[in-house]
Amino acid sequence: MPGExxxxxxxxxxxxxxYSLQGESRPAGLPxxxxxxxxxxxxxxxxxxxxxxxxxxxxxMDEIIDAVAAWGSRLVCVTGGEPMAQPNCRTLLQRLxxxxxxxxxxxxxxxxxxxxxxxxxxxxxxxAPGSGEVQRNHWENLAQLKCGDQLKIVIRxxxxxxxxxxxxxxxxxxxxxAVLLSPAWGELEPRQxxxxxxxxxxxxxxxxxxxxxxxxxxxGH
Length: 221
Fold this sequence. Notes:
By secondary structure, the chain is an alpha/beta fold. The chain has one domain: Aldolase class I (TIM Barrel), CATH 3.20.20.70. The longest helix is centred in the C-terminal third of the chain and has 13 residues.
């Protein structure tokens, strides 16, 4: 029926909504509500959320916001999968901001980020060669980011690191955004990455996945 179309348009497929410590980015360690949307067009070799590729359940915007409110946290992170694979993600981000939440978006950056509410902090990946998805980097998204947004690059080996350094220098990325380099879990020793960063005097932050240090690879953390 015509009257049902707006309700359908305001639905999203959700894998899980949970409360945990933020494991990455600048607010690492702060209690946060996570909304993990279902679906992702990428297949990174080191992906740790393959369970979010399919399934999930359809939820209305109001149901999602009510579930977030039940945890009583001001910090909300919308993640995936790839949350921008669902166009209604933009509406969810706006509505969460309108409710007074401090909202962050974790995205691969492979899809267009235009039109995201300016109140949202974007944490965007750049895919290094070791991910197997380097060709999916949507470089135009750099122009969509604000100075308070963040870039994350997962580093699998020295080739990835050298690629990252080349991108940082060619595009002046550390002068524009906070840059986070993270060792691929189980594939690169954090100490090795730390030594490379120090040797090159890179103005970046070494990022470890706090949630994995605390809980391993258990879903919902």
